[in-house]
């Protein structure tokens, strides 16, 4: 039954695709970090950095349909400096979770350094930044035990039209959209962004049609 529904939708798509106007598509979107927040009772300064360690400036962007003012494009790490501390050993913990404290199951980064002259600096550098994930930075040492000092959200890079994350646009991307529209496929938030090739802020049949036109050189991304 699932194969029959997909075949019917694909046939309808092929019949109608040549009759529709061309839609302009945006260039592939870069990943990064956004919604950086200072938390807790300690004094925290931070610099958001790219892979090479260069400080990245924030800019306005639309993330999952919401306008944000502090999107750091291509950012993969944050240099965190905490002051007002007693000298001695401190630990930084980075957890990937929605709430609660760090555990063995959600820790994605850990570092240790010694506070001197009342401050300590860490470079928070997880192995990867995942889209749709919330990251929490905790400080332990001295008077602080797993005290949250910073949080941020990740935004994964995606290619417009590449719904199946194969690093290219193909027939399967259009099929996945059609299956999603008849509840035979589930798309996560990043896949929905990739699927919205007509930039209508929703995923619909026209997105699959635009991809099909692209595949026969009647559309450009």
- Low-confidence region ranges: 15-28
Residue fraction in strands: 35-45%
CATH class call of the largest domain:
Mainly Beta
Distance between the termini: 33 Å
What spatial order of strands do you see in the largest sheet?
3-4-1-10-9-6-7
Order of SSEs: HEEEEEEEEEEHHH
What is the CATH architecture assignment of the largest domain?
Sandwich
Number of strands: 10
- The CATH topology of the largest domain is given as Immunoglobulin-like
What is the total number of structural domains? Answer: 2
Bin the helical content: 10-25%
Please report the number of helical segments. 4
Rg value: 22 Å
Q: What's the story with the biggest beta sheet?
A: 7 strands, antiparallel
Give structural notes:
There is one protein chain. The chain has 221 residues and is α+β, with helices and mostly antiparallel strands. It folds into two domains: 2-28 and 158-215, Dockerin domain (Type 1 dockerin domain, Orthogonal Bundle), CATH 1.10.1330.10; 32-155, Immunoglobulin-like, CATH 2.60.40. Helices cover 20% and strands 35% of the residues. It has four helices and ten strands. The protein has helices at 2-17, 171-181, 189-195, 205-215; strands at 32-38, 43-49, 59-63, 66-73, 77-83, 88-96, 107-115, 119-124, 134-141, 144-155. The strands form two sheets. Strands 3-4-1-10-9-6-7 form a seven-stranded antiparallel β-sheet, with no helix packed on it. A hairpin with a 2-residue loop joins strand 3 and strand 4. Residues 15-28 have low confidence and may be disordered.
